[in-house]
Amino acid sequence: MVSDQVANPTWARMLAEITAQVLARGKEYIHERVGLYHLAGGGFASRFEWARLILELDPNRHEQMVKELLPAPTSDFPTPARRPLFSALNCDKFAATFGLRLSAWEAALRMAMDVLK
Questions:
Q1: N or C: which end of the chain has fewer CB within 10 A?
Q2: Which CATH number fits domain 6-115: 3.90.170.10, 3.40.50.720, 3.40.50.460, 3.40.50.300?
């Protein structure tokens, strides 16, 4: 599993909930804050860290075919498309403007996995 590509894992449900909270504030409120914002899960993780926690929290882990993940650099998986090693988004502008942040990716993943139980 690639261990040197880092991003903000983001649960779509939380993204939708925060978006709904902003929309509920009304058209005028939003119009006064028009701009480009980043919104993603709090913190960042490598693909390896993310996958490892998914396997650890999986409520059906006894059914998993993959029992162990091994970290590996991106260079071990050549692809035609170049991948950035760090693509995490800075969401400070969104938080400062709207007073909202998404939960840390680990907490969001735990909530998402609880839905599977």
A1: C
A2: 3.40.50.720
DSSP three-state, residue 46: strand
Tell me the pLDDT tens digit for each residue of 40-57. 999 999 999 999 999 999
The SS3 assignment for 104 reads strand
What 8-state DSSP symbol labels residue 62? G
CB-CB contact of 8 with 89 (8 Å): yes
Nearest Cα to Cα of residue 38 among 84, 7, 13: 7
The answer to whether 53 and 19 are in contact (CB under 8 A) is no
At 52, give phi and psi (nearest 5°). -60, -45
What pLDDT, on the 0 to 100 scale, is given for residue 92?
98
Task: Give the model's pLDDT for residue 64.
Answer: 87
Query: Given this model, what pLDDT does residue 91 score?
Result: 98
